[in-house]
Write the structure tokens for this entry.
Amino acid sequence: MFLRSRHVAVVGAGLSEDPVDTWLREQGLSRDIALQVPSYLQALQVTAQSDLVAFVPRRLARSMARRFALRLLPPPIDPGDYHEQLFYPRRAAQDPASLWIRALAQAISRELGSLTERHQSRLARTRIAVRPPPSIRS
């Protein structure tokens, strides 16, 4: 049923297809792509307003499910690990604001990466307060 459903594919900048489709093809499988969007958030928005299915990272889906009134189901396939990349222009390598936001993103990523399933409910109750460094406050 999953592969026969109509899907939203997330094809980010510089990619020719959704990484899920690359993985499916390696397994000898394919899915019916009805729409391509450039981000997971857009995939969730489209899914909320249609009968399409989206394959998105679990943490994002959980955090946005209530907002978009989405029903989350475990996928019938396991595509393995997924890795996000943090890119920035060379000219920003020593910029205080860029250094701060990159350090913050890396810290949050490490924290999220260390969580196990049993800690997910605690994360849902946690608020992250972010204070910019003095050099970029207005």
User: Anything to note?
Assistant: Residues 62 and 72 are 8 Å apart (CA to CA). The domain at 6-68 is CATH 3.40.190.10 (D-Maltodextrin-Binding Protein; domain 2). The longest strand covers residues 32-37. The chain has two domains: 6-68, 90-136.
